[in-house]
Amino acid sequence: MLNRQIVLASRPDGVPAPENFRLAESPVRELQEGEVLLENQVFAIDPAVRGMLDDRDDSYLPAVPIGGLIPTMVLGRVVRSRNPAFKEGDYGRGFVGWEEYSILNPNNFAIENVHVDPSVPLTAYMGALGWSGITAYVGLKRIGEMKAGETVVMSAAAGAVGSVGGQIARLSGCRTVGIVGGQDKADLVTGTFGLDAAVNYRAEADLGAAIKAACPDGADVYFDNVGGTVLDTMLPNMRDFGRIVVCGMMANYNNHDQPVPILNLWQVLVHRITMRGFLAYEHLDMLEEAESQLAAWIKAGDLIALENVTTGIENTPSAFINLMSGKTTGKTIVRLNEGVTTL
Q: Any idea where the Enoyl reductase (ER) domain is (predicted)?
């Protein structure tokens, strides 16, 4: 049995390019005691991976060596098992890489046994019902301490986390404003997702004035997926004792060596803002609550899960490049074969 993998051929300079990646093959070895073999079905394509492609040591995840497997969250079906916690036919979800087969030892590697509902498409477990949705839920509920009646501003509101987060805020009784990079995305978040207002930062000569017009009394919670100019502009537009949830820094992922300067940090003191970064997997006590509520909203039709799906491992680099070029909406997902169900 051969395992096809996408490995790092060279380090990107700015937005990744096809030549930065290479398709490799290697045999699948025999399982050892305690291990399971996953036949991967779905990859979650996330922008945070971009930071691991540079030769840097200032990320919360290690840099990928040249020739190394590109890391990603995978959903796979167990095809062989030497671990009593997993049987053949089970589904496992873990942070592995762009490969067709993964060998994991659940005793020393975080792999989640996913109880798949046959009425829910598999891709949902890597998007709105996966760590994108869980991240949005944990960030708003625990880190942002969101309350009904408050104003929530969501950056990258048409993206993987933002598209779910904006709807969670709306469903929780908040006035919700989405910041996006295009009029089509603005129409999407107000029309399809039901947010109260949208700001297209690409079309605004004065972004601060546009944000103030959308939330004249300021924001109680700002969920930051992008950093950079949007974060800098949001700081003066926070209400006193507002909370900034730091989830991602998309504006700097392609240019770590020349990050966008933050000039309005003084406003943290002026408005007594709480600003906190978080990693969702450090809040596993909320996992069951998040998955249960997200599933209920999706099944009821209250939460629209938007997916951008590519098929085939060989097309994974192009899906990632499109994501890092700002060309996608919703969750970017790669399914390994046509038989994987999508939303």
A: 16-334
Strand segments, DSSP code E, in the chain are 2-8, 21-27, 36-44, 73-81, 91-95, 101-104, 111-114, 151-155, 175-180, 197-200, 219-224, 238-246, 274-277, 307-311, 331-335
Sequence ranges of the chain with CATH classification 3.40.50.720: 131-281
Which residues lie below 8 Å from residue 50, measured CB to CB, with a gap of 6+? 12, 16, 253, 254, 324
As its CATH architecture, domain 131-281 has 3-Layer(aba) Sandwich (3.40)
Total-model pTM = 0.88
Q: Rounded to whole angstroms, how far apart are CA atoms 224 and 278?
A: 11
Helix (H, G, I), strand (E, B) or coil at 104: strand
Distance CA(49)–CA(61), nearest Å, equals 9
Query: What's the fold here for domain 2-127+305-335?
Result: Quinone Oxidoreductase; Chain A, domain 1 (3.90.180)
Residues 27-86: tens digit of each pLDDT: 999 999 999 999 999 999 998 899 899 998 777 678 999 999 999 999 999 999 999 999
